[in-house]
Amino acid sequence: MTFLGLISYNLTMEKIRYNIVLRPEKEGGFTVMAPSLPGCITYGRTLQEAKEMIADAIKGYLISLKKHKQPIPNDGESFFASIDVKKSLTYA
Which CATH fold would you assign to the domain 3-67? Predict the structure, then answer.
């Protein structure tokens, strides 16, 4: 099971929205990533800690983008959806 969520970050008075994906791990805890920020991934022992960790990771990512004069992406207009696909015994 994967959980989806949103993180908003205020960068110089502008609120920026990011979709996040939280994935439970077998050994416990959650891996969390921000898909619109490639490589922005972290881990937390609880859902709350995972959200705090990704918020911190996003902050660092945005600071780096700003320092290197790169565009700041956001998920203000995007959303997640799920689709169910039937399992098949044969694969092409």
Answer: Double Stranded RNA Binding Domain (3.30.160)
